[in-house]
Amino acid sequence: MIIDSHAHVVLDAASYRVMATLTGGRNNPRSMAKLPPDSVLEKTVQGLLAQMDEVGTDMQFLSPRPYLQMHSLKPADVPLVWARYNNDLIHAHVQIAPDRFRGIAGLPQFRDTSPAACIDELERAVSDLGFVGCLLNPDPMEGDGPPPPGLGDEFWYPLYEKICALDIPVLVHSAGCCHPRESYTLKFINEGSIAIMSLLGSRVFEDFPNLKMIISHGGGAIPYHIGRFRAGHIRRNQDFDAKLKRLHFDTCVYSTEGLDLLFRICGPDNCLFGTERPGTASVFNPEWGHELDDLKRVIDRIDWLTDEDRAKVYEGNCRKLYTRAFAS
Amino acid sequence: MIIDSHAHVVLDAASYRVMATLTGGRNNPRSMAKLPPDSVLEKTVQGLLAQMDEVGTDMQFLSPRPYLQMHSLKPADVPLVWARYNNDLIHAHVQIAPDRFRGIAGLPQFRDTSPAACIDELERAVSDLGFVGCLLNPDPMEGDGPPPPGLGDEFWYPLYEKICALDIPVLVHSAGCCHPRESYTLKFINEGSIAIMSLLGSRVFEDFPNLKMIISHGGGAIPYHIGRFRAGHIRRNQDFDAKLKRLHFDTCVYSTEGLDLLFRICGPDNCLFGTERPGTASVFNPEWGHELDDLKRVIDRIDWLTDEDRAKVYEGNCRKLYTRAFAS
């Protein structure tokens, strides 16, 4: 079974209108927007399934499109109403094709507000909607001011407590970015690096031994620059590689060389197949003869990986982490 | 000849005292601090030469230690006096061992002030002290507030004009970082990524066709994540790899896998040997049987590189870019 652990909903025209209305009318965003009619939802789902079938993906874990989460838009009700809408939309997808999708909750994070404010929606998504994991944005300020403390800080503990109680993994993934020097796509990568160093330099995994963290986009820059961090750890008689294994990573890295490095540094036991398809890399690469996000074909070509390695990356690791995804 | 293009001065006790006095007395930092006596300078230089000889480095290009540049410390005279001191210190090194060192100027950048304020000191360093290049910090706010515009912005043009007139390369390298969630060492990497995307998304190289930019630390995260940026460029019918070749990169990446990826993505024609020795990675790596910053041994072991490739990386590319370094 091929599980794409990193995929996002594709908004239909009606959903974009909901977003626009929320943005324009953000003085009074309390009224809950209605989902598109069944016929529209059905069409969106068929479109997604066709894209999955094209590359042999059996199941996608769907979360809100990260850069559209509006975490920094005032007032706090904007990201709240929008997160609920997105989670309901994802839930509708799963209802239509329950063998092909699982839901990953978006959280109504808001600027530098305590993430405790996200607990109710997380509880709803997991307990009422049957979601199996959640996104976590390390910088809900989205570049519009000083970010909250790093993920290793106690600031995040109320949310970690709930996450552990629910036994769900966290997919660390930033959202938008307001600063002109850093695109949201570049921020995904930089925030991944910052998240890793904050978590591994903290007491989080001592305080929450069952916390399961997946760093999206192949762990930002850390695998490429691991030598730099090994150095500091050797000095302190510590083992950075061992620490790194406390985390998981997805394979949203769109080059053969990058994926090869990811597997060599982080190990096939710690990597989950993910493509973000359809997304940034859904574009034909003439050199490969297929789209850049058709990553299974790339991983299949990495010849030092064993069949067992690939089985773990495509399915095994995901099943192990997402305990709720296949519960009967 | 083995040229280490990325190396920094090691401050002696007297120089640390100068820095401390400047920091403590920053209301009145105008008085120019004196360099340590010749005996101290001689000892420091001998220490550096010993470390170079241990790994077979013939020449180092010395710049100020980046994280100690104090670019965000108020008032502006603090980084100015300190940059001048560091440049004089480096000049003294070159005077003692002119066959082993070249000077790379630190600039008195100050928070979000126009880099035009750095031109006088750059002119002094190149014309009076014989320096052959300069550092450039993309975020002299050092995380203490919103950074200035990206390196692709016209904000930087007055400095680029001077740099082109002097025909010196720029080594892009951030300095300190005040925000607890991002260490200065991690910021080096993140700022490298931001710098690349800002430069390649701008008109800078059309407006300054002779501008020579070296992105330190192996180009931040960009080579590892090149697929992501290729995707956006393929969509616009552009070639990201071709654009990337407009830049140069140094080899301050301390793993075999990382260096292998750097050379495969950026190409041996665009990489300059650099180790930052002595620095972060001057620590014994039991797995290699030598220090992590003894990178020549690592590069020598990458078997697909040809002798010609290695000659370019160790010497040729550096000579080509740093036209003033070997002028008679």
Summarize the helices and strands and which ones pair or pack.
The structure is a homodimer of 328-residue chains.
Chain A: E1 3-8, H1 13-24, H2 38-55, E2 59-63, H3 77-96, E3 101-105, H4 119-128, E4 133-136, H5 157-166, E5 170-172, H6 184-200, H7 204-207, E6 213-215, H8 216-219, H9 226-235, H10 240-244, E7 248-250, H11 256-266, E8 271-272, E9 284-285, E10 290-291, H12 295-301, H13 307-321
Parallel strand pairs in A: 1-2, 2-3, 3-4, 4-5, 5-6, 6-7, 7-8
Antiparallel strand pairs in A: 9-10
Helix pairs in contact in A: 2-3, 4-5
Shape of chain A, please?
globular
Helix content of chain A: 40-55%
Quaternary organisation: homodimer
Q: Which residue ranges of chain A are poorly predicted, with pLDDT under 50 across at least 5 consecutive positions?
A: none
Q: Biggest interface: chains and residue counts?
A: A-B, 51 and 50 residues
Approximately how much beta-strand content do the residues of chain A carry? Answer: 5-15%
Cα separation of the termini of chain A: 17 Å
Strand neighbour order, sheet with most strands of chain A = 1-2-3-4-5-6-7-8
Overall residue-averaged pLDDT value of chain A: 96
**Biggest sheet layout of chain A:** 8 strands, parallel
Rg of chain A is 19 Å
Structural class of chain A: alpha/beta
Helix and strand element order of chain A: EHHEHEHEHEHHEHHHEHEEEHH
Number of strands of chain A: 10
SS element count, helices of chain A: 13
